[in-house]
Design goal:
The chain has about 400 residues and is α/β, with parallel strands linked by helices. It has one domain: TIM Barrel.
């Protein structure tokens, strides 16, 4: 690699044959013996700028409550909204940076991150500001998604008119402000009891009108038809999709919408089901994998952990899983030309996994298989520890 990009890819022998003796003076050499080099992982779905924790809900679910029941009883997204509204920018920045640090140690070199725990203009902007400050100079590259349509805030509940006012506020005020602040995507939680199909469409179209690219939480808890909506609005990605129906999957295939699957969330919420990943692959949909890192439905920064559930739970092969957390994940966030594979001209984001074959990415489960990370040509994790500049 030269500078931030990959200059050439091949074996030591090929390199010497083509370029003469190696290494040259000043070269940094990584010893990969006994390890497997992979493209830096891309996490295309996270909610990392949040404050507060919901470990009590984890235990409630073990005692038999569902995610929806906990939300209806005042827990869920709105409790994180309350904590995030109260957190000073510095605290939110610090929390977000710690999450980026853990992602990096687990091999993630690029991620998407959403707002959606503000649900009002100042807090949605504060989340974006925290994300910007946390990622400034950080090895993990970040692209931001505006998600004011994550829930209906408590102060806008009680009547259809109040909810409609919030949808209008998202469209007319919050999304334009977040677009101006540097968000690239617009997202919405399209779900029974949250935002319906037509409300979701309105929010996504309003985002498009201010230059944001659409993606959405679709068919996560009920078969509402979000997959089809994703195809209709030209979304880059539809995410979750546990309840996606065959016609929605075919519509996604036809429109080229990436399916970003989050099997960690299925396990965490004890859903007893996964997205129909094999049907999606068979239909020709590009499948990506993300952590969904958030305090309510999937608290992990580890894509290798998600890879374990993708293989064991959804039946993806190791090769499909690797593609899903690299090249297809990059496609999910519009970065496939720049990231997701080890090719000359792409970003020099490389991960070394402990073990001489790809299987070691998931085979040694429950531990972090990543030993070394190069991000934009710089060695940033060595021997499973951060390299401090
Ligand atoms: O992707 N589905 C909506 N949003 C998140 C959950 C957020 C939360 O519970 O705080 C998700 O699962
Ligand atoms: Fe999510």
């Amino acid at each position: 690699m030269e500078g931030e990009d990959i200059a050439w890819v091949g074996t030591d022998e090929e390199y010497v044959r083509l370029h003469g003796e190696a290494p040259r003076q000043g070269d940094v050499v990584l010893d990969g013996r006994g390890k497997t080099a992979l493209p830096g992982f891309v996490d295309p779905h996270t909610h990392i700028p949040w404050a507060g924790y919901r470990e009590n809900e984890f235990n409630e679910r073990l005692k038999g409550k569902s995610y929806a029941e906990i939300a209806a009883a005042g827990g869920g997204i709105v409790s994180t909204v309350d904590a995030t509204r109260r957190a000073p920018l510095e605290e939110l920045t610090h929390l977000t940076r710690a999450r980026l640090d853990r992602m990096l140690l687990h091999g993630t070199t690029f991620c998407e991150a959403k707002t959606g725990y503000g649900l009002d203009l100042p807090t949605e902007r504060k989340q974006l500001a925290a994300l910007k400050a946390a990622s400034d100079g950080h090895p993990v590259g970040v692209v931001a998604t505006a998600l004011p349509g994550h829930e209906v805030p408590l102060e806008r509940r009680g009547s259809e008119a109040l909810k409609a006012r919030y949808v209008a506020e998202c469209c007319d005020e919050i999304l334009p402000a977040l677009a101006a602040d540097g968000a690239r995507f617009v997202d919405v939680f399209c779900e029974h009891g949250v935002f319906g199909l037509e409300e979701s469409r309105r929010i996504l179209e309003a985002g498009k009108a201010c230059g944001l690219l659409p993606r959405l939480h679709a068919d996560e808890l009920t078969p509402l038809g979000g997959a089809r909506l994703a195809a209709e609005v030209g979304a880059l990605s539809a995410d979750h999709l546990l309840f996606a129906q065959p016609e929605g999957i075919h519509a996604m295939a036809k429109a080229g919408v990436v399916a970003t699957l989050l099997p960690g969330t299925s396990v965490f919420l004890r859903m007893n089901r996964y997205a129909p990943a094999r049907e999606m692959v068979a239909a020709g949909v590009a499948v990506a994998l993300g952590t969904d890192c958030n305090p309510g439905s999937s608290y992990t920064e580890s894509l290798p952990a998600v890879a374990f559930f993708a293989t064991i739970g959804m039946g993806l092969t190791i090769e499909e899983t690797l593609t899903a957390m690299t090249l297809n994940a990059a496609a999910s966030v519009g970065e496939a030309a720049r990231r997701g594979s080890l090719e000359p001209g792409k970003a020099a984001d490389v991960v070394l996994v402990d073990g001489r074959s790809l299987e070691h990415l998931v085979y040694h489960y429950g531990v972090n298989p990543v030993t070394d990370v190069v991000a934009a040509g710089r060695l940033v994790v060595s021997g499973a520890r951060p390299v401090t500049a």
